[in-house]
Structures are given as C-alpha cells and as structure tokens.
Design a protein that fits this description.
The chain is an alpha+beta fold. Helix content is 38%, strand content 13%. It is globular and about 40 Å long. The chain starts with a strand and ends with a helix.
Length: 150
C-alpha cells in the first residue's frame, strides 16, 4: 500500500484495516503520534490528513489517502514549527503525552485561522485529554505561535 507521509511516498506491506497509528509507529518508525486509549478519544495519536487532524488509532491505513503529517513532519530540531517552538518556550508540556495531539491540532487551527481567539483555541483543543494541568501554558503557546504566523 502506498502512503504519503511527511512529504515522502512510502510503500508498506500491511492489511488495509491496520490502524494508521500502527503503520506510522511500527512500520515507519515515527514516534510523535502515541498510543493512548486506542478508541480515538484522548487525541495522543493525532496526525494531520490533508491538513485536518484525525485520530490515527481508529483510522485504517487504507483511509489515509492524501498527505499524512506527523509531529516529525511539522519541523525539525534545528527548525521547529512555530507551534513546536512555542510549546518549548512556554514549557507547555509536563509529561508530554498529550503534546502530540495538542501541537498537531494547534498547527491545523493556525493554518486555517492565523489569529484565533481564546475561545477558538479552546474549542480546537477541547477534545484532547491532558491530566498534567498545563492548560494555561498550552493556550499561551498557541497564542505565541499565532503571533509568529500572522
């Protein structure tokens, strides 16, 4: 099966029903998307499919038509995406387990809306579970990134 991940076309030998998360982590070695609940509820497995956040743990690989972007595809350690840099500067991750989903969703939000309101940021991140209590820092990181991308 051919997939396009982080700008590269890759051929993987998997069943079409294999969860995209399994393909990304186990076959392609991407560690940004994480296995959390396995039910598409927590958001730690979030990737972008054609710019839209999806839960890769419940998305079959065969449904990944178009461009899949993982956390590794947003930026590099030398040149991080503005949201990644803002998360670092705001120290927005404590345990970091939810950070993948939050960053991916925030990047998609800022692509659609370069200057979101606090309410729009909260709505975009509402479906992600974070138990560490860094919500204020996460919101501040998205606002910081918005200032860079506007």
């Amino acid at each position: 099966m051919l997939l396009r991940v982080n700008g590269q076309e890759v051929d993987v030998d998997v069943e079409p029903s294999t969860p995209l998360l399994d393909v990304l982590r186990n076959d392609l070695g991407f560690n940004g998307p994480r296995f959390g609940c396995g039910l598409g509820q927590c958001g730690s497995c979030t990737v972008l499919l054609n710019g839209t956040p999806i839960r890769s743990c419940v998305t079959p690989a065969s449904a990944a038509t178009g461009e899949v972007t993982t956390l590794e595809g947003l930026g590099t350690p030398e040149n991080p995406h503005p949201v990644q840099q803002a998360f670092i500067e705001e120290q927005a991750a404590q345990c970091g387990y939810c950070a993948n989903g939050m960053i991916m969703s925030a990047a998609a939000l800022l692509e659609r809306n370069a200057s979101p309101s606090d309410t729009e940021i909260r709505q975009a991140l509402d479906a992600y579970l974070c138990r560490c209590g860094t919500h204020t820092r996460i919101i501040n990181a998205v606002k910081r990134a918005a200032g860079r991308t506007s």
